[in-house]
Amino acid sequence: MNKVLVVDDTKNIRMLLTTCLELKGYKVLTAEDGKSAIDKVRKEKENIDIIFLDIRMPEMSGTEVLKTIREIGVTCPVIIMTAYATVKNAIDCTKLGAVAYLQKPFSPDRVGAVLDEILNSKEIFDEKLKHLDEESILILKSKELLAKDNFEEAHNILKKALAINPYNKEIYHLISEINKNINKLDKAKLFNDIYELFNEAHI
């Protein structure tokens, strides 16, 4: 039986989705906030097949939850639920592997349609996400380490990201910043020059 995690701070939404999903044969876990969602993901990460995630929640947004679960290593499809869709949210969530949006208010039929869409394209999604996530997660992790001045570990992680995709200019920029911070100015300039070349080439 497939297991689904529903994350929303509104009780009625959790109940509606639970009913819809259970009728389709899914086992449903629920979380009312981001922290609870992450706790459940850590505990059940090998077993969760799909996540329905509200984008606007108090204390911890859906985007933050999505970043964290990707860093944990969970790569299952995520459906973003929102009544306030924005271009920025769409871009941020798509980069992290969100596969669909569920606009509130929604009907049981719409939930079914989104599930069918995901299941029909899951094989393609898995292949794309496998590569997207590894690179994106490494970059996100490096930024966290940079913010904590953990330059050595951030550098090691970025070298792995560079091996996956040597055409991502952001990686060169981040490595340049690390070298500036540890006073390796020649290397900082070298990586910044590569970054600028990508900019000039509009890559």
UniProtKB/TrEMBL annotation:
Source species, domain of life: Bacteria
Modified residues (4-aspartylphosphate): D54
InterPro entries noted in UniProt: Bact_response_regulator, Sig_transdc_resp-reg_receiver
Keywords (A to Z) from UniProt: Phosphoprotein
Residue intervals of the Response regulatory domain: 3-119
A UniProt-annotated Pfam family: Response_reg
Protein name, entry field: Response regulator
Lineage of producing organism: Bacteria, Bacillati, Bacillota, Clostridia, Eubacteriales
